[in-house]
Amino acid sequence: MGAWVERNSRRHRDQPALLFEESRWTWRELNLVANRWAHALTQHGVRRGDVVALGLESRPELMFAVIALAKLGAVSGLVNSSLAPESLAHSLRVVDPSFWIIGQEVAPGFGRVFDGVPGARRRLYVADTWSGARAEEPPPGWTSLDRAVSAAGRGNPDSTRKITLGERLFTIPTSGT
Predict the structure, then answer these.
(1) pLDDT (tens digit per residue) in 29-72
(2) Does the first or last residue of the chain, that is N or C, have fewer Cβ atoms within 10 Å of its Cβ?
(3) What is the rounded CA–CA span in Å between residue 73 and residue 62?
(4) Radius of gyration (C-alpha) of the chain in whole angstroms
């Protein structure tokens, strides 16, 4: 997936790749943003093979995170953020993440189940800039990913060229099965 985005950024540079509400990213822009995310995640310790639980509503940052993780060879744990606490905790235990990337819009729900889920203790927080809500600082013990992304480099990470088709890209738990 990461190599595919890089290829499309060369072949279809100025063609639309991602549309969200009134915003638009070309393939080139999408690749550059995903690269920033990949470099920021690397700075926070995400490595090839790590499973990262993604708790974000449907917004561009979800796609940026998935592509960035693919470029690093990490696994996106796509968790349904609207689950009731018990089902959410079950899904997170199934995903068994090393890291969590949690959006401001769902942080309270994830915060309620965090202590009951073994494993991941690294919580990365992404502010909600889309809903019109005021962007908030991360809760105590959570690290802002936004600052690292805005300061990160935009070049393609070397790791993308080392990823093979046989590596896991996603873990998608269902609630209760």
Answers:
(1) 999 999 999 999 999 999 999 999 999 999 999 999 999 999 99
(2) C
(3) 16
(4) 16
